[in-house]
Amino acid sequence: MGLSQALSTAMSGLRATQNSLALVSSNVANAETPGYVKKTVNQVTGSTGDYGSSVLINGVNRQLDQYLQSQVRTESSGAAYADIRSSFLSNLQGVYGNPAQSGTIEDAFNSFLTALQGLSTSPDSQSARIGAVNAAASLAQELNSTTAGIQSLRANAETGINESVITANNAMKQIAAINNQLQASGKTDASTAALLDQRDQYIDQLSELMDIRVVTNNLNQVTVFTNSGVQLVGTEAATLKFNPQGTMTPTTLYSNDPTKSTVGSLTISFPHGGDYDLVSTKSIRSGKIAAYLELRDDTLVKAQTQIDQFAAAMSSAVSDKTTDGVPATSGAAAGYDLDLTGLQTGNVIHVTYRDNTTNTTHNLSIVRVDDPSVLPLSNSATLDPNDEVLGIDFSAGMASVVSQLNAALAGSDLQFANPSGSTLRVLDDGAPNRSDILAASVTATMQSLTSGNAELPLFTDNGKPYSGAIGAAGSQMTGLAGRISVNTVLLGDPSRMVVYSTSPLTPAGDNVRANFVLNQLSSGTFRYTPQTGIGTTSTPFTGTLTNFVRQILSQQGEAATAAKQLADGQDVVLNTLKEKVTSISGVNIDDEMAHLLALQNAYSANARVMSSIKQMYDTLIQAM
What mean pLDDT comes out for the span 517-538? Predict the structure, then answer.
C-alpha cells in the first residue's frame, strides 16, 4: 500500500468517525424528544487500490422495527377508541347518578310512589295532595335534567369530531409535504432521517384518530389508507370535511338520508375531485373519530331513548283508557261498535279477528294518524310484536276513515261503517262465515282531569297530552323526557289528584284515582321499545316501571365498567408495545457514552495513523 493510499484510508476513517460523533451528539441531545428515533451511520467498505480499503458513509440508519411500529399504530387506534368511550360512559353514569344515592331517576320515582301511597291512605289531606303533585314535578325535573346531561355529552362528541378533523387534516398535509421533500434517490441522510421522524409523528397522530394502514415505496414515501381502503394521503392529501351543528337535542339525529340527517356529516374530499361519505359507509372503524361517532349517533341516542320510553310509559300508564267495543249486528254480520270520541293522534283501535279459511287469528292495531306523509306505518310503530299495524289518516273525517279501512282490509272479509257521530262499526262477513271478529277495543288518551274516569293527564308534553303521536318530525316519544312536565291545572289545583268528577262531585275521601295511579305506576306491566337497547323486536322487554328504570341503571353501570376494563386492557397492551419500541428506537445515554468512547479511540487511532504517515513523508522528502 502506498503512503497516499494509507493517507486516504486514514482520512476516510476520520470522516466516518466525525459523522458518527455528530449522530451521537444528536442522539444524546434528543434523548427526551418525543418521536425521535435513534440514528447510526451506515458504513460500507470502499476500495483505495489493490492493497487497501477505506470506509465510506452510505447514509444514516434509523433504529426502527417497522413491524412493531405498525402494531403500535393499530393499538393506538384501539386504545384511543376505548379511552374515549370509557370517559363518556363514566360521565353518562354521572348523569344518571349512583343508584345508592339521591338525585337519580329511580330515587325521584320512588319518592313519587311514596307520596302516592300517602295520598291513597289520606286522599282528603291537602298536604298529601300537594306532596304527590310536588313529587311528580320533581320526577319530571329529574327527567328534564337527565336529558340535558345526555345531550350535553352528545354535543361534546360533536365537538370532539370537529377537533379531530382539524388535527387529521393538518397531519395529512404535513405527511404529503414531507413525502414531496424526500430525496428521489431514496437514500437516507441525516436531514432525511429527521424528516422521517417528523412524518412518523404525524402518522402516529393520525393513527389515534382513525384506523390506518401505511404503505412505503422505494423512495421512502408513504401512502396512508384507512383500513377500509379509503386513501387519505400520498404525495397529495385528501381533506376531511365536517359541519358541526352546535347545540344537540333529542331530535338532532343521524340518518343515512342526507335530507333527514340533522347532525354534522363527515366526508372526505379527494385531491382530484369527488367526495365520499365516511359515516354511512362506516369507513372509520376505530380511533377517536369512530368513538365519537358511535357515542353521538348510537350509544347516547339509546340512553336518551331509554329515559324517553320511561317518560312515555309513565305518562300513558295513567292517562290511557281502554274501552271495549259494544256488540253490534247487521243482518247476519256481527261485530262491535267503537266510540272514537276523544281518540288522539297516535291512539290505537284494536281488532282481533279470525280468518276461518286458514284458521289464523289476526291482531290488528289501527293507529290514528293526522299527517298522511308518514303513511304507511311499519309494524314496529307499536310495541306489540304480534300485531299487524295499519295507519289511518283521520284528518279528513269519519267518512274518509271508513273508506280507507275498507280499502286497506278488502281481503280480510271485514266491513267498516260509521252508523252515527264518532262511532266506528266493524263487522265480519256474515253468512259466508269466512271471518269472525273475536274482540275490539279503543285505547284513548284522557284530556280532562274531571272526565269521571280514574285516568288523568297527570303528565304533559310541553302542556299538550302525550298520545304517542307519529308525525313528519318523528315519534312524539323522541325527547319527551326533556319536555315532560306536570299538568299545570294540577299544579294550581292539587285536589284533582283525587277529584275525578264534578257531577256528581267526587267525595273528599275517595281514593279511587289515587289507588289507580299508584297501582299503575308501581305494579302495571308495560312493553318497552327495543330502540332502548333492552330487549328485541320479537321479544321486547316487559315489566314494571321500577323494573325498567333499574334495568337502565344496571345496564349503564355494566357498560361503564366494561368500557373501563377494555380501556385499561388496551392501555396495557399499547404501553407494552411502546416500551418495546423505546428499547429499540429510543436513546440510551449509557450506550451512547460507551459508543462515544469507542469513537474517541477510533478518532485518535486514525489521527495517529495520519501523524505517522506525515512523519514518513517528512523523512522521504528529507532523504531526497
Answer: 94
What pLDDT score does 27 carry?
65
Query: Residues for the chain: how many in total?
Result: 624
- The DSSP-derived string for 178-215 is HHHHS-TT----HHHHHHHHHHHHHHHHHHHHS-EEEE
pLDDT in tens, 186-202: 567 778 888 888 999 99
**Distant-in-sequence contacts of 486-491, Cβ < 8 A, 24+ apart:** 486/133, 486/136, 486/137, 486/140, 486/458, 486/459, 486/460, 487/449, 487/456, 487/457, 487/458, 487/459, 487/460, 488/460, 488/463, 489/449, 490/133, 490/136, 490/449, 490/458, 491/133, 491/137
User: Which ranges of 500-544 would DSSP assign to H, the alpha helix?
Assistant: 512-523
Query: What H or E segment, with its residue span, contains residue 76?
Result: helix 66-96
* 268 or 615, higher pLDDT: 268
Which residues partner with 396 through β-bridges?
none
pTM above 0.70, yes or no: yes
Task: State the Cα–Cα distance between residues 475 and 464, nearest whole angstrom.
Answer: 14
pLDDT at 379: 92
* Cα distance between residue 572 and residue 597, in whole Å: 37
**What pLDDT sits at residue 485?**
97
Q: Can you read off the three cell numbers belonging to residue 154?
A: 352528545
d(CA 362, CA 438): 10
Q: How far is CA 132 from CA 123, 461, 494, 547, 559, in A?
A: 10, 19, 8, 21, 34
- Secondary structure class of 558 (helix, strand, coil): helix
C-alpha 177: how far from its chain's center?
34
Rounded CA gap, 391 and 570, in Å? Answer: 49
What pLDDT, in 10s, does the model give residues 138-193?
A: 999 999 999 999 999 999 999 999 999 999 999 999 999 999 988 655 567 778 88
Query: Does position 66 have pLDDT exceeding 90, yes or no?
Result: no
The cell numbers describing 291, all together, are: 368513538
Q: CB-based contacts of 609: which residues, under 8 Å, 6+ apart?
A: 6, 9, 10, 13
- CA max distance for the chain: 146
Phi and psi torsions of 282, nearest 5°: 50, 45
CB 438 within 8 A of CB 335: no
Q: Looking up cell 336518551, which residue turns up?
A: 304
Q: Is the distance from CB of 434 to CB of 310 less than 8 angstroms?
A: no
DSSP, collapsed to helix, strand or coil, labels residue 83 as helix
Dig out the grid coordinates for 421 from the structure.
257521530
User: Which residues neighbour 216 within 8 Å (Cβ) at sequence distance 6 or greater?
Assistant: 222
Cell numbers for 394, please give them: 283521520
- Give tens-digit pLDDT for 570-606: 999 999 998 888 788 777 777 767 766 776 776 777 7
Find all residues with CB under 8 Å of 295, minimum gap 6, and list them: 84, 85, 88, 153, 154, 157
- C-alpha–C-alpha distance, residues 178 and 200, integer Å: 10
Long-range contacts of 535-538 (CB under 8 A, 24+ apart): 537/380, 537/385, 538/385
Rounded Cα distance, 428 and 436, in Å: 5
* Residues 433-485: tens digit of each pLDDT: 999 999 999 999 999 999 999 999 999 999 999 999 999 889 999 999 999 99
**Cα→Cα distances 151→148, 247, 297, 359, 481, Å:** 5, 8, 11, 50, 12
- CA–CA distance, 511 with 454 (Å, rounded to integer): 10
